[in-house]
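Project outcomes to date are best conveyed with an example. Our students and postdoctoral researchers have been running inverse folding experiments weekly, and each run begins with a structure described purely in tokens. The record below, which covers 447 residues, was selected by the lab manager from last quarter's runs and is presented without edits.
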């Protein structure tokens, strides 16, 4: 494997320069234009033709071996998080790459450069499509809702939007490597991770003087607080094996201390290991929200605006990546029976084709935390590029025997993207969850 490792090493400066630029210029989902333009320039300089998304950041760049075979989708995410307390965040936006997406884009650029080195494609068949995507993190729902209302996007996550636009058409299998907290030259893989439903709840009350006549008001903050407590009260009804996670945050609240709050909102994800268990938990959460609003006489609008499918690791690709990781890293911890409780829209890709997401070390601190940083670029970016290039070799050599094995054995949940999008569209709902009848009865509308 030394030949392929050396092909990456020749492009090490390109990789590190890209990492440094993108780390220093964090942008949140569907706003990653500086990152887009930087990577666009570098891919064009390598001789690639780009299929750009156009009115949103991101593009695809494909290389053809010249021999018939499957098409591998190699993903890299561009977006950052918002953590204003992080010491290296953008002082104006609070954005920072506290999930390490900057390492993905840098490493995939390195793979794209290394694959152009003489002899690297020898003996391979099929195509490799580099997919540089926006908006993996499910944040800033109002901004994404505005984009949707303007007709700029149809779906609030980058990979799903690319799928909808046809930019992933013809892809047969997919992979991605994510940075992880760990030491030098180490990595891991697991069997998959949770899916989720993106939810917000907007409580509406009646404002009144908080000291003089509070009895004339309806306190939206109390309704929201009651809902948070009600959600906590149903946690023990979730089965441990379903890995349900519900974690609300107040996103909007009135700030005048001498007025009864009449407009308070929270956002949350409802996560689970299967979509069936996630949907069942979501029903319980909706019931808790609606009943809490009704208990104080408030109204509440519930918005289920998006979802991520649980991520399933393909076992054939797992074995390929395990071999590739062991040829590059000093230590690996690969367990196909271990489950993660985070979520990613690459799970949606796994519902349609074989997919694997691996992890390499090089980061320190807490993921999504104010102390997260990349301490070893060699591991997080350069090792990652080497693993990806070697995995491509293993998948596409010998008439793509391993890639064909993966696609032949895989049983997708959806037969095609049309069926997938029909399901996604059925998840998205806008509900006025409490109806006050003229006769004094109250109806909880949970459909």
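After processing, the design step wrote out the following sequence:
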């Amino acid at each position: 494997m030394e030949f392929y490792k050396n092909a990456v090493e020749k492009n090490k400066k390109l990789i590190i320069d890209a990492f440094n630029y993108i780390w220093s210029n964090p942008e949140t989902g569907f706003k990653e234009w500086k990152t887009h333009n930087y990577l666009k320039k570098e891919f064009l300089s390598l001789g690639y033709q780009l299929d750009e998304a156009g009115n949103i950041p991101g593009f695809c760049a494909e290389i053809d071996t010249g021999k018939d075979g499957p098409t591998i989708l190699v993903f890299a995410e561009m977006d950052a998080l918002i953590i204003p307390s992080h010491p290296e965040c953008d002082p104006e936006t609070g954005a920072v790459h506290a999930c390490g997406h900057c390492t993905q884009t840098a490493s995939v650029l390195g793979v794209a450069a290394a694959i152009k080195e003489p002899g690297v494609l020898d003996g391979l068949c099929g195509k490799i499509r580099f997919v540089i995507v926006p908006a993996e993190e499910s944040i800033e729902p109002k901004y994404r809702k505005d984009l949707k209302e303007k007709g700029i996007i149809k779906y609030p996550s980058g990979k799903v939007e690319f799928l909808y636009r046809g930019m992933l058409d013809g892809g047969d299998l997919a992979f991605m490597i994510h940075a992880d907290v760990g030491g030098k030259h180490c990595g891991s893989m697991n069997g998959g991770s949770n899916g989720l439903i993106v939810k917000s709840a907007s409580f509406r009350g009646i404002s009144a003087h908080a000291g003089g006549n509070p009895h004339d008001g309806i306190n939206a903050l109390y309704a929201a607080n009651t809902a948070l407590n009600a959600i906590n009260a149903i946690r023990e009804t979730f089965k441990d094996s379903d890995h349900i996670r519900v974690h609300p945050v107040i996103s909007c609240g009135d700030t005048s201390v001498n007025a009864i709050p009449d407009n308070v909102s929270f956002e949350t994800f409802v996560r689970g290991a299967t979509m069936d268990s996630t949907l069942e938990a979501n029903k319980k959460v909706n019931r808790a929200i609606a009943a809490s609003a009704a208990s104080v006489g408030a109204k509440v609008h519930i918005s289920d605006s998006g979802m991520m499918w649980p991520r399933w690791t393909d076992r054939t690709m797992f074995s390929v990546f395990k071999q590739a990781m062991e040829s590059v890293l000093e230590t690996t911890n690969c367990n196909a029976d271990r489950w993660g409780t985070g979520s990613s829209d690459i799970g949606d890709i796994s519902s349609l084709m074989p997919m694997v997401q691996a992890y390499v070390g090089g980061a320190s601190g807490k993921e999504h935390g104010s102390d997260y940083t990349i301490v070893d670029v060699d591991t997080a970016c350069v090792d990652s590029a080497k693993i990806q290039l070697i995995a491509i070799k293993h998948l596409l050599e010998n008439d793509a025997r391993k890639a064909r094995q993966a696609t032949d054995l895989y049983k997708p949940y959806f037969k095609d993207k049309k069926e997938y999008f029909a399901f996604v569209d059925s998840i998205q709902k806008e509900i006025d969850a409490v109806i006050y009848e003229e006769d004094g009865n109250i109806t909880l509308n949970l459909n």
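The mean pLDDT is 96. The first strand starts at residue 50 and ends at 52. The training component of this project remains on track.
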